[in-house]
Each structure stands twice: as structure tokens, then as C-alpha cells.
Please model this.
Amino acid sequence: MVTHLVKTLAASAILLSTLTALSHTANAEYQLIDRVVAIVEDDIVLASDIRKQIISIKQRITSSGGQLPADDVLFEQVLERSIIENLQLQRAAQIGMRVSDQQLNEAMNTIAARNNLSLADFKASIEKQGESYLNIREKIRKDLLINEVQRRSVIRNISISESEVDIFLQS
Model:
């Protein structure tokens, strides 16, 4: 009888603690961490990514003395650009397109040289502006992939007939 009472009390205590834990979970406040603003085939565009891009664009426009567009216009333009970039990067991945470290290093050296800087000075300049050199490298890697996808798309859509070749050769 005592063991039955102890078992019943133990089961009641376990049930009570479980219900208490569940009620605390049910009353917990949920905090929104981020929002999905677009679904792009196999990927998503987050509101935080759009906000970061908008802040960066506003800083560049303000520092150059330009006039800022309306926030809703800027949001739409940044979102559209993000969706297009995302589609192009997905296309690059689908066809197995890659940018090697050597190609990326060459591009980084070219950008540095265009700005009359050594690669080390270019890196220091980026970090002085509060940017991460590694983030800039990845941005340039993505830009190279996007440029190649666009180039291939243009070439694929060019059609030159034999008569056009003949006319060209006769001129």
C-alpha cells in the first residue's frame, strides 16, 4: 500500500513538472530573428541581407553627395537585383561553373592595379573602410561567376546566318 502511494505520488510529481514545463513553453515569447522576403528556386532572400545592402548603398550615395531614392524604390531595386543574382549563381552551380583561387587572385590584383595599389595596400584600404577582405573576395568571386553566366547567355542567344557572314566577308 505504501509503495503504491509512493508510485502514485511520484507519477503525479512527474506529471505536474511536465505540465509546468509545457505551460512555460506555451507562454514563452517568440522573437522574430529574420524574414524570408523571396524564394528563389532552391534558395531564399532574407530581409537582413536586403537591409545590409540598402545601408551600404545609402552610405555610398551619401558619401558621394548623391540624392537618395525613396526607401520603397530602393527596397524593390535591391530585392530585384538580389533575386537576379541568386538565379544567376544557381545557374552557375547547375552547370558546374567555378572560379579558381588563381582566377580570383588575378581579378583581385587587377582591381588593385586599376586603383594604383598593391594587393597589400588594396587589402588595407578595404579594411580601413570597415569591410572584411574575405567578404570582398567572396563578393568578387560571385561577380565573376555572374559575369560568366551573363556572357554565356549572350553568346547562346547570338545567331548569325550564312547570308550575314557572306555579306560581312564581301564588305
